Amino acid sequence: GGRPRSPDLLRATPRAPDGSPTGSLPFANPAGSTTVRHRCAPRKNSVQMSFSDFRLTPALQRGIADLGFTEPTPIQLAALPPALEGRDVLAAAMTGSGKTAVFALPILQRLMGRPGSGVRALVLTPTRELAAQVHEHLRALGRHTKLTSATVFGGVSAGPQLRALRAGVDIVVATPGRLLDHLGSGAARLDGVEILVLDEAD
């Protein structure tokens, strides 16, 4: 069952005249109100782009190079520009297409340029396995930055999670259940969150 999925679909969330979102909120605080629909099929004879064309910081460029990434994937080409502008983005693509970098790079870029304290970016995933994968990708891309991150999910001891939350981390990758537990106990606070990502929201 389930509804059919359109591969490689990107849509920037439309906004009402007062600036409030009229759809999903994978990214917070959009800078524009333009709605974009794009199918990320490879184009023949198109000009090749590199990650340097996105004007990412040198620290992020080093992280990308460490991972061996050279050319952006179709979903990255379509979704990174509006995401880096701070716009709301709703994207769907095949597994292994590079979706995680579509939100990881804008998170890292934004937080590096905006000093703050406490949790400033929250990534929600449906499973702890996905949370661990996303966190590892974030850490790899941001290894040359000073940003900190932690995972929050069930099935493991809550001790390390509590220590990380109390010490203060910039980015939290969490599953809803364990995060709600920490919110209920007062161990986690989300009032400083600037960016919200719903991974595998469907």
What does this structure look like?
The protein is α/β, with parallel strands linked by helices and 202 residues long. Helices cover 33% and strands 13% of the residues. The protein contains six helices and seven strands, in the order E-E-H-H-E-H-E-H-E-H-E-H-E. The chain has helices spanning 58-66, 74-84, 99-112, 128-141, 159-167, 176-185; strands spanning 9-12, 37-39, 89-92, 121-124, 149-152, 171-174, 195-198. The strands form two sheets. The protein has a four-stranded parallel beta sheet, sandwiched between helices. The chain has a three-stranded antiparallel beta sheet with strand order 2-1-3, covered by helices on one side. Helix 3 (99-112) crosses helix 4 (128-141). The model is unreliable at 1-45 (pLDDT under 50).
SSE order and pairing:
Layout: E1 9-12, E2 37-39, H1 58-66, H2 74-84, E3 89-92, H3 99-112, E4 121-124, H4 128-141, E5 149-152, H5 159-167, E6 171-174, H6 176-185, E7 195-198
Parallel strand pairs: 4-6, 4-7, 5-6
Antiparallel strand pairs: 1-2, 1-3
Helix pairs in contact: 2-3, 3-4
